[in-house]
Fold each of these.
Amino acid sequence: MSEPWKYTTALDFVDHWQSLIAGLVGFAAAIVVVVVTFGIERRRLERETDALRKSLAYELRLMVPRALGASRSLIEHIETPGAVITGRVVRYLSRLPTPIIYPANADKIGLLGSDAMGVVIVYSLVELARQAAEDLERDRDADNLSPASVAAVAGTLLDACDQARDVLRRLPTGDLRFDERDRELFQAILAAVNMRRHSQ
């Protein structure tokens, strides 16, 4: 009958249980690696999201004032007595900067969380207005367009600007110089929206 094992030194204990100890050490090391990897990935994702937010913030601050200006120009042209409204003029007045950041990062917009939908709506409305202006240029009556069809393009651009007010508030650039410009832009958008309501 064999006697139960008894260790007399720590070395004897380690020698007897070395497989179990090696397994526990390996398991602990694997957990540490996973935790560290997740931490690194989370920080990388946070940096990428922050960069995306700031890039879109700058691009929208370039595009939205131009969209507001285009909307105003189209309305002024419609209201000018005796003005001939042509597709070429509409296309010229509604020219906007071509977005670069948004199309290049369309697959990452979900990183913006609850702000993603607002960003998508603004860019979609701008693209809708751009497409409508191109369609009017190709219209069979492109040399004498109806004021209503041109007003629809102007209205879509203004809708994009109105939607952008909330989006821009939620996408700061981190540059304090833009705060004052944002306030002026929001006031101008609100004034244009109110003017449209009173004219309807």
Amino acid sequence: MNKAIIVVAVILAAYIGVYAAYRTTNTEVWEVDGMSYVIFGSRLNYYLFRPLTYIDGAITGMRFHIGPHQSTNESSR
């Protein structure tokens, strides 16, 4: 039983570590509202990390977005 707990703890720690690295490298400030967002490159990444985004958002106020924000520049329309 102790081995199973250790394996689960290692997997959980690795999951959190991978999320922390992803969050660090994929955070950007959206110029429209000045807020920081973790930008998910795909729905797969979003759903993979979704459980942690709830916790992260509640603790840090971080926001999340799938894909890049749309430009609000009038000349780009």
